[in-house]
Amino acid sequence: MMLPHTADAAPHLGNSTADAAPRLGSSTAADAVPTALGASPHGASGSASSELGRVRPPRHLADLGEGDRAAWLADLGHRPFRARQLSHHYFANLTTDPAAMTDLPAALRAELAATVFPPLLRVAEERRTDRGATVKWLWRIAGGAGVESVLMGYPERVTLCVSCQAGCGMACPFCATGGLGLIRGLSAAEILEQVRLAQVVARRGELGIGPARVTNVVFMGMGEPMVNYQCVIASVRAIAAPPPAGFGLSARNITVSTCGIVPGMDRLAGEGLPVRLALSLHAPDDALRDELVPINRRYPVADVLDAARRYYSATGRRVSIEYAWIRDINDQEWRADLLAAELRRRGAGWVHVNPIGLNPVPGSKWTASRPHVEDRFAARLRASGIPTTIRETRGADIDGACGQLAAAESRDHG
Ligand code: SAH
Question: For residue 288, how far is its CA from the centre of ligand 1 (angstroms)?
Fold first, then answer.
């Protein structure tokens, strides 16, 4: 479907307070939704994408660590303690609406909120499925590129899947985002805004499961976290810091998913953050992984598995191996056996496997494996003592699964 091109057509999040309908600046929809969007995202390495990626977002309070926030307020000519008040509004009350900031002098509110909370994400599209328990947003960021988040409510947890880049440079051929090329990395605040806006929706009870709160954040939307490392880590710290410094989620409930950039994995292991690491392996042998995850040519299977094992040694967190089953490509029993052997060779209890059925990207030659083939693959892993949990796919019908949104955009505009 076409993306809305007018403000009125753009779906709003709930009612129309400043929080509910974020806008990029005060611009009209005509200039907030750039015409460049009409160009094919698949020309990502071409001019349309580089145009989209050229604009940087304005500085936002959430880009800064706690100490730097006070320094920024001082630079702006305000009392440093305003930083704590503003942080409380943002991270505890989840608001950027000056009308709600009654602890600030009335004369200051509007100007201060506009300066430290410039709107970063504008809702371009919102889709719901699973009786409202899955919500997918397409956000428009400064410069006009689109990024997605998917919020999934479960009885025991609420998981938000965030994007950390617009597009991605890793070029994995089974992933729709890979076809876009890298447009630009998101700022820490652009990542944190995804969390805040989803948290508002969860708190309001709009997830179909009553008032809830986001408990888990997974960096499994668009982008490769290790390529936007500093902003990803800054956002992780702010997601996990207790309010008013941050949103106060447990770092243990944050998952950083990587295609296997070894220096980034080692660096993350040294951050002292007990986040979960997921490694997108998809093949246990270099011959196939070179094709499915092209960065494998730089960081081959043995090296990424060694780095994953080091991550476990450093953090005590069991690593997740992601494996998207692709019919007749990576779903053979011998590959299950080879995967089990490679994992076992590095010890016991340090790893588990999270296979998922491929969400076929339109136009791709690949499709999902047959269910009995998946079951056999999982059974062989388990028989070798490898804990294996098949991941449920949510949101495929709203193009919310694994880079599917990017595919929808390119179908519309390509
Ligand atoms: N760049 C990170 C995050 C990517 S998205 C990474 O590579 O891990 C999170 C997961 O979704 C990755 O394991 C990715 O390989 C997987 N994925 C991408 N496209 C998919 C598809 N069409 N079907 C199933 N999984 C997919």
Answer: 16
